[in-house]
UniProtKB/TrEMBL annotation:
Gene3D superfamilies: Type I PLP-dependent aspartate aminotransferase-like (Major domain). PROSITE patterns: AA_TRANSFER_CLASS_1. PANTHER family: AMINOTRANSFERASE FUNCTION, HYPOTHETICAL (EUROFUNG) (PTHR43510:SF1). Keywords: Aminotransferase, Transferase. The lineage of its organism: Bacteria, Bacillati, Bacillota, Bacilli, Bacillales. It is an enzyme of class 2 (transferase). Its cofactor is pyridoxal 5'-phosphate. It comes from the Bacteria. Residues 3-255 form the Aminotransferase class I/classII large domain. Belongs to the class-I pyridoxal-phosphate-dependent aminotransferase family. Its EC number is 2.6.1.-. This is Aminotransferase.
């Protein structure tokens, strides 16, 4: 299990009693998985390797070669690979082509949804692409938890998917424009550094202040109304997560307030 990542990817299997081993993603490696470290974690008992591409919270993006390395390791122990691909398509390079895990591995499982890349979280709909035996098991469990989806949600999701190219073009422009603004801001701030995201809508900012990340975020919110996620949520003290896919002027105003806060503490 790569870490940091979306919490439910590791907390849910832990709640079921699974043994979860974490593959740490480090800023000095661009928040990319180390294949040698992954090899040291797997064994003949490994059932599933879980990755998140593009990564939340770092915005790191693995290419085909890196994914192929993971597939090779999984195949060596006959494990499935689950790839959370909810940010798929939101790339800083509009010409980037990154295959889905199901295109690379016969035991690949891809999950996606309307919530992130499509910015339609209110629809509460998603999908799984996987081998047939996995889909059959998922359907059994789904029948116990969800009788049916809302007809209106279904209709809106179908309409969005039929207009996928237009939506992704619009959302891609927003994240590219806003990351440019965030990047310029980071370059100006002496107390802030980061690994520039390649995809997604979030970034991990490292701050140079002797204060825990939760305290930093609470003080920032109380002083300015700006809300960032503490790095402690991802076991990364000294960091905060920022979402930059908001209204551009809101982002500019928020970053200006963060600058004022940093000056008051630095």
């Amino acid at each position: 299990m790569v870490h940091p990542t979306y919490q439910q990817l590791y907390s849910v299997p832990e709640s079921f009693g699974a043994e979860v081993k974490l593959l740490r993603l480090r800023p000095e490696n661009g928040f990319r998985p180390d294949p040698d470290e992954l090899r040291s974690l797997v064994s003949s008992q490994t059932k599933l390797i879980v990755i998140n591409n593009p990564n939340n919270p770092s915005g790191a993006l693995m290419g085909e070669a890196e994914l192929a390395d993971i597939v090779g390791i999984a195949r060596s122990v006959n494990a499935f690979v689950l790839c959370d691909e909810v940010y798929r398509g939101l790339y800083q390079d509009p010409d980037a082509q990154v295959p889905s895990i199901v295109d690379l591995y016969e035991k690949g499982i891809s999950t996606g949804s309307m919530s992130k890349a499509f910015s339609l979280a209110g629809l509460r709909l998603g999908w799984i692409a996987a081998p047939l035996e996995v889909i059959r098991e998922c359907l059994k469990h789904r029948d116990y938890t969800t009788i049916s989806c809302g007809l209106l949600d279904d209709a809106l999701a179908v309409h969005a998917l039929k207009n996928c190219d237009k939506i992704m073009e619009r959302n891609g422009k927003i994240v590219r424009r806003n990351l440019h603004i965030l990047d310029e801001w980071v370059q100006r701030e002496p107390l802030v550094s980061y690994v520039k995201p390649q995809a997604g809508t979030t970034a991990l900012l490292q701050y140079d202040l002797p204060v825990p990340s939760e305290t930093f975020c609470l003080d920032l919110f109380q002083a300015t109304g700006v809300f960032l996620t503490p790095g402690s949520c991802f076991d990364l003290e000294g960091h905060v997560r920022i979402g930059y896919a908001c209204d551009t002027e809101v982002l500019r105003a928020g970053l200006a307030k963060v600058s004022e806060f940093l000056r008051s503490r630095g």
